[in-house]
Amino acid sequence: MSRITQRRRVSHLAAGDATQRSETLAVEEPLEIRLGGVPLTVTMRTPGSDIELAQGFLLTEGIITGRDDVLTARYCAQPDGTNTYNVLDVTLAPNVPPPAVDVTRNFYTTSSCGICGKASLEAVRLASRYAPGDDPVRLTAAALTAMPDQLRAAQDVFATTGGLHAAALFDFADGGTMRAVREDVGRHNAVDKVIGWALEHGHVPLAGSVLLVSGRASFELTQKAVMAGVPVLAALSAPSSLAVDLAVESGLTLVAFLRGASMNVYSRSDRIVG
């Protein structure tokens, strides 16, 4: 049994018959992220790529702006000396001011919603240091419609569980190559993980990139794309009205219902050619 999946016995009912069989489930466990020993947030996630998750979260929350802002990131041992790998402590560089840990920053996030614990509207909308509207990237519709199949082929855990969201980064400076893909029970965690990967590899801001998500395009995912300097966000499912508002405001190209050879482009359609 891995920490990503677990096997469970289930009773399968079909056509009036019941059979016992084993099913593979995606693991969901809490991760507490601390800053300098002070608890900041708890998120329900699929274990794996936790340091990427923490760094992507800190970037998209506006706490850090680059990899050099993080001095160390390590798991914390429990009082009995054991390590559950569910508590991660991040030490910021000396020149990075710590955030005010209050009710607007110290919040619990479920696997389905990353911002529902924030205490005020002011804590939701963040200002990005990057301007995705200035990115001159151009891409073909054919290249976009080829991305979902590449994403699905890379979703190893989804193939066995059917229970994970995914996020992938594609590089149009390199012909639309898929750079990285991450899976998680939380769509916001999958995005934070893949943005954390980009941060680790010096790719932030993500100019010339497409962020593809396996579900819908919510306000939160759109904001994460803007915070990382992503010029194009594509989703397999629907967008929300506030996601479209933010995309228009920031100059981000928002594509949704990306299925087969069709798509809807809600903002900056001039970036899509052919």
UniProtKB/TrEMBL annotation:
The active site is at 113 (cysteine persulfide intermediate). GO terms for molecular function: sulfur carrier activity; sulfurtransferase activity. Residues 1-11 have a biased composition (Basic residues). Residues 1-21 are annotated as: Disordered. One of its GO terms (biological process) is Mo-molybdopterin cofactor biosynthetic process. Its main location: cytoplasm. Keywords: Cytoplasm, Molybdenum cofactor biosynthesis, Transferase. It comes from the Bacteria. It is found in: Cytoplasm. NCBIfam families: fdhD_narQ, PRK00724.1-2. Belongs to the FdhD family. Required for formate dehydrogenase (FDH) activity. Acts as a sulfur carrier protein that transfers sulfur from IscS to the molybdenum cofactor prior to its insertion into FDH. This is Sulfur carrier protein FdhD. The lineage of its organism: Bacteria, Bacillati, Actinomycetota, Actinomycetes, Mycobacteriales.
